[in-house]
Amino acid sequence: VHQSKLDFFCKLGYAKQDICKVLESLGQEALEDDVLKELIRMGSKPQALESRAQPSPLKLVARGSCSTSPGLKWLGEDESDSADDLRPIVIDGSNVAMSHGNKEVFSCWGIQLAVDWFRERGHTYIKVFVPLWRKEPPRQDSPIADQHILEELEKQSILVYTPSRKVKGKRVVCYDDRYIVKVAYEKDGVIVSNDHYRDLQNENPEWKWFIEQRLLMYSFVSNRFMPPDDPLGRHGPTLSNFLSKKPVLPEPKWQPCPYGKKCTYGNKCKFYHPERPHQAQLSVADELRAKTKVPLDLGKEEEKRNRSP
Protein backbone atom coordinates (compact mmCIF):
# COMPACT_ATOMS: atom_id res chain seq x y z
CA VAL A 1 0.00 0.00 0.00
CA HIS A 2 2.86 2.35 0.86
CA GLN A 3 4.62 1.67 -2.44
CA SER A 4 1.44 2.15 -4.51
CA LYS A 5 0.72 5.52 -2.89
CA LEU A 6 4.35 6.53 -3.26
CA ASP A 7 4.32 5.71 -6.97
CA PHE A 8 1.02 7.52 -7.49
CA PHE A 9 2.17 10.83 -6.00
CA CYS A 10 5.59 10.52 -7.64
CA LYS A 11 3.81 10.46 -11.00
CA LEU A 12 2.12 13.74 -10.03
CA GLY A 13 5.61 15.22 -9.54
CA TYR A 14 5.91 15.41 -5.75
CA ALA A 15 9.20 14.58 -3.99
CA LYS A 16 9.59 11.24 -2.23
CA GLN A 17 10.76 12.86 0.99
CA ASP A 18 7.60 14.97 1.28
CA ILE A 19 5.39 11.99 0.50
CA CYS A 20 7.10 9.82 3.15
CA LYS A 21 6.73 12.58 5.77
CA VAL A 22 3.01 12.88 5.09
CA LEU A 23 2.47 9.12 5.15
CA GLU A 24 4.33 8.87 8.46
CA SER A 25 2.18 11.60 10.01
CA LEU A 26 -1.18 10.45 8.62
CA GLY A 27 -0.55 6.71 8.57
CA GLN A 28 -0.21 4.21 5.76
CA GLU A 29 -3.98 3.75 5.40
CA ALA A 30 -4.72 7.45 4.85
CA LEU A 31 -6.88 8.32 1.86
CA GLU A 32 -5.27 9.84 -1.21
CA ASP A 33 -7.37 12.99 -0.89
CA ASP A 34 -6.07 13.55 2.65
CA VAL A 35 -2.48 12.97 1.55
CA LEU A 36 -2.89 15.45 -1.31
CA LYS A 37 -4.39 18.08 1.03
CA GLU A 38 -1.49 17.62 3.48
CA LEU A 39 1.07 18.00 0.68
CA ILE A 40 -0.59 21.24 -0.42
CA ARG A 41 -0.72 22.48 3.18
CA MET A 42 3.00 21.76 3.65
CA GLY A 43 3.74 23.91 0.62
CA SER A 44 5.16 21.04 -1.39
CA LYS A 45 5.07 21.70 -5.12
CA PRO A 46 5.52 19.31 -8.06
CA GLN A 47 9.04 19.14 -9.41
CA ALA A 48 7.95 20.70 -12.69
CA LEU A 49 7.01 23.94 -10.91
CA GLU A 50 10.18 23.93 -8.79
CA SER A 51 12.39 23.47 -11.83
CA ARG A 52 10.75 26.47 -13.48
CA ALA A 53 11.39 28.64 -10.43
CA GLN A 54 15.11 27.74 -10.29
CA PRO A 55 17.40 29.48 -12.80
CA SER A 56 18.93 27.27 -15.42
CA PRO A 57 22.68 26.60 -14.91
CA LEU A 58 25.04 28.43 -17.24
CA LYS A 59 26.88 26.40 -19.84
CA LEU A 60 30.62 26.89 -20.39
CA VAL A 61 31.84 27.35 -23.96
CA ALA A 62 35.38 26.48 -25.07
CA ARG A 63 37.64 29.50 -25.51
CA GLY A 64 38.48 30.44 -29.08
CA SER A 65 35.62 28.54 -30.68
CA CYS A 66 34.28 30.68 -33.50
CA SER A 67 31.57 28.34 -34.78
CA THR A 68 28.76 27.34 -32.48
CA SER A 69 27.34 23.87 -32.74
CA PRO A 70 23.53 23.49 -33.06
CA GLY A 71 23.35 21.93 -29.60
CA LEU A 72 24.92 24.98 -27.87
CA LYS A 73 22.91 28.12 -27.17
CA TRP A 74 23.60 31.53 -25.76
CA LEU A 75 24.23 31.77 -22.04
CA GLY A 76 21.04 32.19 -20.03
CA GLU A 77 18.79 31.23 -22.93
CA ASP A 78 15.98 28.85 -22.04
CA GLU A 79 15.66 25.87 -24.36
CA SER A 80 11.94 25.41 -23.79
CA ASP A 81 10.68 28.97 -24.20
CA SER A 82 7.99 28.00 -26.68
CA ALA A 83 6.89 25.03 -24.58
CA ASP A 84 6.66 27.15 -21.41
CA ASP A 85 4.26 29.53 -23.16
CA LEU A 86 1.68 26.73 -23.52
CA ARG A 87 -0.60 25.80 -20.64
CA PRO A 88 -0.54 22.34 -19.03
CA ILE A 89 -3.28 19.98 -20.22
CA VAL A 90 -5.34 17.79 -17.87
CA ILE A 91 -7.66 15.39 -19.69
CA ASP A 92 -10.74 13.74 -18.20
CA GLY A 93 -10.01 10.27 -19.60
CA SER A 94 -13.40 8.73 -18.79
CA ASN A 95 -15.29 11.61 -20.40
CA VAL A 96 -13.17 11.57 -23.55
CA ALA A 97 -13.24 7.77 -23.92
CA MET A 98 -17.01 7.49 -23.45
CA SER A 99 -17.60 10.40 -25.82
CA HIS A 100 -15.54 8.71 -28.53
CA GLY A 101 -17.40 5.45 -27.92
CA ASN A 102 -20.85 7.11 -28.28
CA LYS A 103 -21.48 6.64 -24.52
CA GLU A 104 -21.64 2.88 -25.03
CA VAL A 105 -18.00 1.75 -25.13
CA PHE A 106 -14.98 3.02 -23.21
CA SER A 107 -12.86 3.79 -26.29
CA CYS A 108 -9.21 4.24 -25.36
CA TRP A 109 -8.47 5.30 -28.92
CA GLY A 110 -10.30 8.58 -28.22
CA ILE A 111 -7.84 9.34 -25.41
CA GLN A 112 -4.93 8.69 -27.78
CA LEU A 113 -6.41 11.06 -30.37
CA ALA A 114 -6.73 13.84 -27.79
CA VAL A 115 -3.17 13.32 -26.51
CA ASP A 116 -1.76 13.34 -30.05
CA TRP A 117 -3.61 16.58 -30.86
CA PHE A 118 -2.01 18.43 -27.95
CA ARG A 119 1.39 16.86 -28.63
CA GLU A 120 1.35 18.21 -32.17
CA ARG A 121 0.69 21.70 -30.80
CA GLY A 122 3.82 21.41 -28.62
CA HIS A 123 2.33 20.87 -25.15
CA THR A 124 4.83 19.06 -22.93
CA TYR A 125 2.74 18.61 -19.76
CA ILE A 126 -0.21 16.30 -20.56
CA LYS A 127 -1.94 14.21 -17.89
CA VAL A 128 -4.86 11.83 -18.34
CA PHE A 129 -6.84 10.62 -15.31
CA VAL A 130 -8.67 7.28 -15.48
CA PRO A 131 -10.13 5.19 -12.62
CA LEU A 132 -8.01 2.20 -11.61
CA TRP A 133 -10.79 -0.31 -12.18
CA ARG A 134 -10.55 0.38 -15.93
CA LYS A 135 -7.33 -1.61 -15.76
CA GLU A 136 -9.33 -4.77 -15.01
CA PRO A 137 -10.60 -7.09 -17.76
CA PRO A 138 -13.70 -5.67 -19.48
CA ARG A 139 -17.18 -6.85 -18.57
CA GLN A 140 -20.41 -6.98 -20.50
CA ASP A 141 -21.93 -4.02 -18.68
CA SER A 142 -18.75 -1.90 -19.15
CA PRO A 143 -17.01 -2.80 -22.44
CA ILE A 144 -13.55 -1.36 -23.17
CA ALA A 145 -11.96 -1.04 -26.61
CA ASP A 146 -8.19 -0.84 -27.27
CA GLN A 147 -7.26 -1.34 -23.63
CA HIS A 148 -3.57 -1.73 -24.50
CA ILE A 149 -3.41 2.04 -25.16
CA LEU A 150 -3.80 2.66 -21.43
CA GLU A 151 -0.68 0.61 -20.72
CA GLU A 152 1.33 2.51 -23.34
CA LEU A 153 0.25 5.90 -21.99
CA GLU A 154 1.06 4.78 -18.45
CA LYS A 155 4.61 3.85 -19.52
CA GLN A 156 4.98 7.32 -21.03
CA SER A 157 3.98 8.90 -17.66
CA ILE A 158 0.95 10.51 -19.27
CA LEU A 159 -1.84 8.39 -17.83
CA VAL A 160 -2.52 8.38 -14.07
CA TYR A 161 -4.90 5.91 -12.45
CA THR A 162 -7.06 7.29 -9.65
CA PRO A 163 -7.12 4.77 -6.76
CA SER A 164 -9.89 2.29 -6.05
CA ARG A 165 -10.19 -0.87 -3.94
CA LYS A 166 -12.64 -3.57 -2.95
CA VAL A 167 -14.07 -3.79 0.56
CA LYS A 168 -16.15 -6.93 1.28
CA GLY A 169 -16.74 -7.49 -2.42
CA LYS A 170 -17.79 -3.90 -3.09
CA ARG A 171 -15.65 -1.52 -5.10
CA VAL A 172 -14.72 1.74 -3.37
CA VAL A 173 -13.81 4.33 -6.00
CA CYS A 174 -12.21 7.71 -5.29
CA TYR A 175 -13.71 10.73 -6.99
CA ASP A 176 -11.52 11.17 -10.07
CA ASP A 177 -13.06 14.55 -10.98
CA ARG A 178 -11.58 16.02 -7.82
CA TYR A 179 -8.08 14.95 -8.92
CA ILE A 180 -8.63 16.48 -12.35
CA VAL A 181 -9.73 19.87 -11.05
CA LYS A 182 -7.07 19.98 -8.30
CA VAL A 183 -4.14 19.23 -10.58
CA ALA A 184 -5.36 21.62 -13.29
CA TYR A 185 -5.90 24.37 -10.68
CA GLU A 186 -2.44 23.91 -9.16
CA LYS A 187 -0.75 23.82 -12.56
CA ASP A 188 -2.79 26.77 -13.87
CA GLY A 189 -3.69 24.60 -16.85
CA VAL A 190 -6.69 23.63 -18.95
CA ILE A 191 -9.30 20.92 -18.26
CA VAL A 192 -10.35 18.93 -21.33
CA SER A 193 -13.83 17.58 -20.73
CA ASN A 194 -17.48 18.01 -21.68
CA ASP A 195 -18.47 17.76 -18.01
CA HIS A 196 -19.33 21.00 -16.17
CA TYR A 197 -18.35 19.73 -12.67
CA ARG A 198 -21.29 21.51 -11.07
CA ASP A 199 -20.83 19.77 -7.70
CA LEU A 200 -17.20 20.92 -7.49
CA GLN A 201 -18.17 24.45 -8.54
CA ASN A 202 -20.55 24.67 -5.58
CA GLU A 203 -17.87 23.26 -3.28
CA ASN A 204 -15.18 25.89 -3.88
CA PRO A 205 -15.69 29.41 -5.29
CA GLU A 206 -12.13 29.51 -6.67
CA TRP A 207 -12.75 26.25 -8.50
CA LYS A 208 -15.98 27.68 -9.88
CA TRP A 209 -14.18 30.57 -11.56
CA PHE A 210 -11.39 28.26 -12.75
CA ILE A 211 -13.80 25.72 -14.29
CA GLU A 212 -15.78 28.47 -16.01
CA GLN A 213 -12.66 30.05 -17.52
CA ARG A 214 -10.43 27.01 -18.19
CA LEU A 215 -12.80 24.27 -19.35
CA LEU A 216 -12.12 23.20 -22.93
CA MET A 217 -14.97 21.28 -24.55
CA TYR A 218 -14.53 19.19 -27.69
CA SER A 219 -16.15 16.99 -30.33
CA PHE A 220 -15.14 13.91 -32.31
CA VAL A 221 -15.75 14.15 -36.05
CA SER A 222 -14.78 11.01 -37.98
CA ASN A 223 -12.09 9.96 -35.46
CA ARG A 224 -10.79 13.52 -35.33
CA PHE A 225 -10.46 15.40 -32.06
CA MET A 226 -11.83 18.91 -32.61
CA PRO A 227 -12.00 21.56 -29.86
CA PRO A 228 -13.89 24.78 -30.70
CA ASP A 229 -12.11 27.81 -32.15
CA ASP A 230 -13.87 30.02 -29.57
CA PRO A 231 -13.83 28.07 -26.26
CA LEU A 232 -15.43 30.91 -24.24
CA GLY A 233 -17.91 32.08 -26.83
CA ARG A 234 -17.98 34.46 -29.76
CA HIS A 235 -16.59 37.41 -27.80
CA GLY A 236 -13.96 35.38 -25.94
CA PRO A 237 -10.35 34.51 -26.80
CA THR A 238 -9.31 32.33 -29.71
CA LEU A 239 -8.24 28.73 -29.19
CA SER A 240 -4.54 29.57 -29.54
CA ASN A 241 -4.81 32.35 -26.95
CA PHE A 242 -6.88 30.12 -24.67
CA LEU A 243 -4.14 27.47 -24.64
CA SER A 244 -1.30 29.97 -24.29
CA LYS A 245 0.03 31.72 -21.18
CA LYS A 246 0.96 34.77 -23.25
CA PRO A 247 -2.00 35.54 -25.51
CA VAL A 248 -1.40 37.58 -28.64
CA LEU A 249 -3.81 40.50 -28.86
CA PRO A 250 -5.25 41.18 -32.33
CA GLU A 251 -4.46 44.48 -34.02
CA PRO A 252 -7.29 47.04 -33.72
CA LYS A 253 -9.37 47.32 -36.85
CA TRP A 254 -10.52 50.88 -37.48
CA GLN A 255 -13.91 51.32 -39.08
CA PRO A 256 -13.90 53.93 -41.85
CA CYS A 257 -16.06 56.99 -41.36
CA PRO A 258 -19.34 56.68 -43.31
CA TYR A 259 -19.28 60.44 -44.13
CA GLY A 260 -15.78 60.36 -45.61
CA LYS A 261 -14.37 63.81 -46.46
CA LYS A 262 -17.72 65.44 -45.71
CA CYS A 263 -17.35 64.64 -42.00
CA THR A 264 -17.67 67.76 -39.82
CA TYR A 265 -16.89 66.15 -36.44
CA GLY A 266 -13.16 66.89 -36.60
CA ASN A 267 -11.23 65.57 -33.60
CA LYS A 268 -14.46 64.27 -32.07
CA CYS A 269 -14.97 61.72 -34.84
CA LYS A 270 -14.36 58.18 -33.59
CA PHE A 271 -14.03 56.64 -37.06
CA TYR A 272 -11.00 56.26 -39.31
CA HIS A 273 -10.27 58.78 -42.06
CA PRO A 274 -7.87 57.53 -44.76
CA GLU A 275 -7.23 61.12 -45.93
CA ARG A 276 -5.71 61.86 -42.50
CA PRO A 277 -2.45 59.85 -42.42
CA HIS A 278 -1.82 60.47 -38.72
CA GLN A 279 -5.47 60.89 -37.73
CA ALA A 280 -4.98 64.62 -37.16
CA GLN A 281 -6.83 65.71 -34.05
CA LEU A 282 -7.79 69.15 -35.39
CA SER A 283 -11.12 70.81 -35.65
CA VAL A 284 -12.61 71.66 -39.03
CA ALA A 285 -11.91 75.40 -38.58
CA ASP A 286 -8.25 74.74 -37.71
CA GLU A 287 -7.85 72.49 -40.76
CA LEU A 288 -9.31 75.24 -43.00
CA ARG A 289 -6.94 77.82 -41.53
CA ALA A 290 -3.99 75.48 -42.09
CA LYS A 291 -4.99 75.01 -45.72
CA THR A 292 -5.25 78.77 -46.32
CA LYS A 293 -1.86 79.28 -44.56
CA VAL A 294 -3.38 81.47 -41.85
CA PRO A 295 -1.66 81.14 -38.47
CA LEU A 296 -3.81 79.75 -35.72
CA ASP A 297 -3.01 82.65 -33.40
CA LEU A 298 -4.19 85.21 -35.94
CA GLY A 299 -7.36 83.26 -36.47
CA LYS A 300 -8.08 83.19 -32.75
CA GLU A 301 -7.41 86.97 -32.47
CA GLU A 302 -9.88 87.64 -35.30
CA GLU A 303 -12.48 85.57 -33.47
CA LYS A 304 -11.91 87.60 -30.29
CA ARG A 305 -12.26 90.89 -32.20
CA ASN A 306 -15.48 89.76 -33.82
CA ARG A 307 -16.87 88.68 -30.45
CA SER A 308 -15.89 91.94 -28.67
CA PRO A 309 -18.57 94.71 -28.88
From TrEMBL:
Pfam families with a match to the protein in the record: RNase_Zc3h12a, UBA_6
Keywords: Endonuclease, Hydrolase, Magnesium, Metal-binding, Nuclease, Zinc, Zinc-finger
GO cellular component: cytoplasmic ribonucleoprotein granule; nucleus
Domain of life: Eukaryota
Annotated C3H1-type domain residues: 251-276
Keyword Zinc applies: yes
Molecular function as annotated in GO: hydrolase activity; mRNA binding; RNA endonuclease activity; zinc ion binding
Tagged with keyword Metal-binding: yes
Protein name listed in UniProt: ZC12D ribonuclease
PANTHER family: N4BP1-RELATED, RIBONUCLEASE ZC3H12D-RELATED
Cofactor(s) this protein requires: Mg(2+)
Family classification: Belongs to the ZC3H12 family.
Zinc finger (C3H1-type): 251-276
Taxon lineage: Eukaryota, Metazoa, Chordata, Craniata, Vertebrata
